[in-house]
Amino acid sequence: MTSSGSVHVISNSQGYRCTPSVVAFTENPQIEVGEAAKWQSSQNPTNTVFEIKRLIGRRWDDPAVVAENDRPTKTVEVIVNLKKR
Fold it and tell me: Second label for 46, Cα 20 to 30 Å away, from 17, 23, 52, 68?
């Protein structure tokens, strides 16, 4: 945020000035984002997506999105499976 020509960083709900680019989808179904998603990622790794910001606004056939299927976390597979719920 800018105010009077200077930049002000707004803290998130946990008080941090930087929010991790992590999204987690839980069974109940609930969506966790940021720090909350990062904290539960060890218990729910298959439904946790890291570095999600770089995929926002991209098409499914974009090379960056297609390349995600080569990663061990299978980001695109998690998102597609959630769309089927």
Answer: 17
